[in-house]
Structures are given as structure tokens and as C-alpha cells.
Amino acid sequence: MFNFFKKISHLTFPFFVFDYYYSSFWLALSVKVLAGLYILTQIASCFRKDTINNDIEIKIPLRKIKILIIDDDNVSRSLINKLILKISSNVEIRFANDGGIGISMIKSFAPDVVFLDMLMQKMNGNEMVQKVVKSCPKYLDRIVVLTSLDSSSKEVQESIISGCDFLSKPISFIKINNMLCKVLDRYKLKNNLSEIT
Known about the structure:
Layout: H1 2-11, H2 23-46, E1 65-70, H3 74-87, E2 91-96, H4 99-109, E3 113-117, H5 125-135, E4 143-147, H6 154-162, E5 165-168, H7 173-186
Parallel strand pairs: 1-2, 1-3, 3-4, 4-5
Helix pairs in contact: 4-5, 5-6
């Protein structure tokens, strides 16, 4: 019976049938094979493209916030521009001096926020809002109407009903800051104002 198991062990079951002649040989061979496999897996891991070092923080640059200022008064445009740049430098600001140019720039520039003066000579803010309603309505809730008119006035109410925000003059750092955060938060872009104070 012992000879029978000894013969079988040479053929099919070298790891599982005890054979005092060959047990140490198979044990040594198994250790060497396992050690070799471990070394190969370590070498292969060095060439894996998806290997990540968790100690390294990867920072993805935030895209710039695009802001369009539509006002026919140079002083007002300059003031709004300076206030925005005090809030954050991570912005791209463009200007238009009437509503007609403003509509064209909304379509081409695709701003995240539009500051629109209500009282302009060629096309006032309310007229522009009504054209935006027809031509590019998805931008209505990005428009902030700036005016010294009372919020109960017909022009302001029409703009608000259309979906625009309203900011009363005189404008200030706090007013611009709060309105930027309000509008950008709708699109989960508030964090892009990386230097916001």
C-alpha cells in the first residue's frame, strides 16, 4: 500500500500525498515559486499607469468666471470692474456699452454673470431683457439689473418677473460680492472665486 501512494505521488499529487523522499524538494520549490511571483507583481506595479500616491494632493485649476458688464457709462463700468477684481482675480471680464451689443456678446461670450444697467440710451436694460427672453432665455437668471429706480417701478418689476436679479444703486463691494455668490451658487461655481474675501 505504501508503494502505491509513493508511485502516485510522482504523477499527480506531489503537494498533498506525504512522500518522505520528495517532501522537502516540493516545499523548497513552492517557496521559490511564490517568492518569484511576489517579485514579479512588485515589478509590474511600478509600470501601472493608474498607480496613485495618496500622499500627493492633485489640484485641478478652477476655470475663470466669465462676467459681462453692460453699461453705457464709462465710470460705472470701471467701478463695477474694480469691485469685481477686489473680490477675485479668477475672472474674465468683458464690456458692452449698449443692449444690442450686449445680446451679441451674451451669445458669443456665454457669461456666467451679466451686470446690466437699466438706463441706457440706445437700448435700455428692460428692452434688452425682453429680447433675451426671446433669443437666449437660459441666460435670464444670470442677469443682474443695476438701477437707481425703485424696485416697485414697472421696468424693474418686468425684469424681475422675467427671471433676472435686481441690485439697487449706489453699488458697493458688499452688494456685488453677495450678488456674485448668489448667482454663481446656482451653477455650483461659487468656489471658482478662489480669492473671494
